[in-house]
């Protein structure tokens, strides 16, 4: 029995070793994607960002907003959001946080836009702790590799572009975003949300 057990152990160990060479953790893939696209990481250069959100098929639609951000570091930044239903000025200066809101609530569609632009993977801390493996990213810009980690109360499907490992899309029960050619220059993270209420919403960068 001992030679058989030893052979079996060797086979499993060799298989695991071979598999490790062709896969990586979803946490590592997500970290690599954010390092290439997220502007608000520690050590990133300060920036000033202005954007306009509008519905292309309805000039008079309520789905319109302006977003402006002055960013120096993760602990020093100012963001202003203006829309017909809701406005917000958020200032972070070290431990001091100042928030001024005008309106009954933060519209869901608008909150998704802000998340997609500034924090495209809000579940990043959980992804780092996940043991889900995906095949190594390779191929062209048209190819994608997806991970389907299951959270306790949610399901996430996260896809990465093949050639550079950039974020291609993020789908959860409450938040969905995808990469579009026009978004790569308009959104800091290269993603725009997929709003069910107004599918023709577009993001236009101003600066």
Overview of this protein structure:
The strands form three sheets. This protein has a six-stranded antiparallel beta sheet with strand order 6-5-4-3-2-13. A five-stranded antiparallel beta sheet has the order 8-9-10-11-12. It is an alpha+beta fold and 207 residues long. The longest helix is centred in the N-terminal third of the chain and has 21 residues, at 2-22. It starts with a helix and ends with a strand. The protein has five helices and 13 strands. It has helices spanning 2-22, 26-37, 108-118, 124-129, 183-186, and strands spanning 23-25, 47-55, 65-73, 76-83, 87-93, 96-102, 133-135, 144-147, 157-161, 167-171, 176-179, 191-193, 201-205.
Topology:
Blueprint: H1 2-22, E1 23-25, H2 26-37, E2 47-55, E3 65-73, E4 76-83, E5 87-93, E6 96-102, H3 108-118, H4 124-129, E7 133-135, E8 144-147, E9 157-161, E10 167-171, E11 176-179, H5 183-186, E12 191-193, E13 201-205
Antiparallel strand pairs: 1-7, 2-3, 2-13, 3-4, 4-5, 5-6, 8-9, 9-10, 10-11, 11-12
Largest sheet: 6 strands, antiparallel
Instruction: List unreliable stretches of 5+ residues.
Output: 1-19, 182-186, 195-201
- Could you tell me the mean pLDDT? 77
**β-strand amount:** 25-35%
Shape descriptor reads globular
| Order of neighbouring strands in the sheet with most strands | 6-5-4-3-2-13
From the alpha-carbon coordinates, what is the Rg to the nearest angstrom?
21 Å
The beta-strand count equals 13
Query: Secondary-structure element sequence?
Result: HEHEEEEEHHEEEEEHEE
């Amino acid at each position: 029995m001992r030679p058989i057990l030893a052979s079996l152990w060797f086979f499993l160990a060799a298989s695991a070793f071979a598999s490790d060479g062709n896969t990586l953790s979803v946490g590592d893939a997500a970290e690599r994607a954010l390092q290439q696209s997220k502007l608000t990481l520690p050590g990133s250069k300060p920036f000033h960002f202005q954007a306009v959100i509008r519905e292309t098929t309805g000039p008079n639609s309520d789905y319109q907003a302006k977003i402006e951000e002055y960013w120096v570091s993760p602990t020093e930044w100012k963001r202003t959001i203006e829309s017909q239903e809701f406005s917000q000025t958020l200032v972070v200066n070290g431990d001091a946080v100042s928030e001024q809101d005008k309106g009954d609530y933060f519209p869901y569609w608008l909150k998704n836009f802000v998340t997609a632009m500034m924090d495209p993977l809000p579940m990043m801390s959980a992804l780092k702790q996940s043991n889900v493996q995906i095949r190594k990213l390779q191929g062209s810009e048209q190819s994608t590799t997806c991970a389907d980690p299951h959270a306790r109360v949610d399901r996430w499907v996260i896809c990465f572009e093949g050639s550079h490992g950039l974020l291609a899309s993020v789908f959860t029960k409450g938040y969905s975003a995808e990469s579009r050619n026009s978004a790569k220059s308009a959104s800091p993270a290269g993603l725009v949300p997929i709003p069910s209420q107004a599918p023709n919403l577009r993001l236009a960068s101003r600066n």
